[in-house]
Amino acid sequence: MQRNIAAICFLLAAIALGVAAGAWWLQFTVFTPDDTVGKTEAILDDDEIRADITTIVAAATAGTLDRTPTEIAADIGPMIHSRAGAGVMTEIVRDAHARAIGNRAEPVRITGEQMILIVRDELVADLAPVTLPVAEISTLRILGNALGWVAAVTAILGVVIALFGLIMRPEGSVVLLGLGELLLALGACLVVIGYLVPVFVLPAINDTTWAGAVPRLAMRTFPLGMGISVVFVALGLFIVLRSSGSGRRKQWSTPLSVGRYRDERSWS
């Protein structure tokens, strides 16, 4: 009975800790705005986001540069879609990302100094700041705020349940099985929560322009996350299979009671 209860506790703990890891990974990779070139480049890989920025900047600088917005857009579009351009756009993209997920209340403005770096012409230095039309996406705000709580609560719950299972003094094979289940849960939740949710589920719920940053950011870390998941799943399967084999060997090696055997023969 204690063996069964401990096994159930370890299974529930594995699921809870897996959810905690997946929630933390999603929050870290998608819902943590920063001004690193890598994240900026990933977000600017979205065609609609690039077009949004290009259109605003081209329209604001066309009069000063005495060129048509189309001509300016043709110049700055490829620049923005490069690593060097991402280095120029880090602060703007960071603020826009924060605005979209509900971490920033102020509107996103592009100053004259920033437009110099984008159009590569100092004539636009004195232009008034222009506002980038980025609205808060309520779905992303709610999810972003919930992820921290989900990660913390499920992590604590998982640890408590695991400790309760250990109090039951389970056999080594049961503990080994729980460890394997934990690794399997970690690998599965990293893929489901850290990749499938932001790449497939959220875009289906909201398809506005700046919501496109979410799947791009998730795909940026996909190779690393998938590599970690594969390692976890492989180790988990190995440990689960080994724990099952260990349990069977112990059953086969259990000695037969000699006294009981003699009693049975005495009645024959």
What is the gyration radius calculated from CA atoms? 28 Å
Briefly note the structural class of the backbone. mainly alpha
With helices defined by DSSP (H or I, 4 residues minimum), what is the helix count?
11
Indicate the proportion of strand residues.
under 5%
Strand order of the largest sheet: 1-2
How far apart lie the N and C ends? 35 Å
- Give the overall form: elongated
Unreliable stretches covering 5 or more consecutive residues: 251-259
Main β-sheet, in a few words? 2 strands, antiparallel
Mean pLDDT: 91
Helical amount: over 70%
Oligomer: single chain
Order of helices and strands: HHHHHEHEHHHHH
Strand segment tally = 2
Features:
268 residues, mainly alpha, two-stranded antiparallel ribbon, 11 helices
Summed up:
α2 crosses α9 (about 215-220), α3 crosses α4 and α8 packs antiparallel against α10. This protein has about 270 residues and is mostly helical. It has helices at about 1-30, 35-45, 45-65, 70-80, 85-100, 110-120, 140-165, 170-205, 215-220, 220-250, 260-265, and strands at about 110, 130.
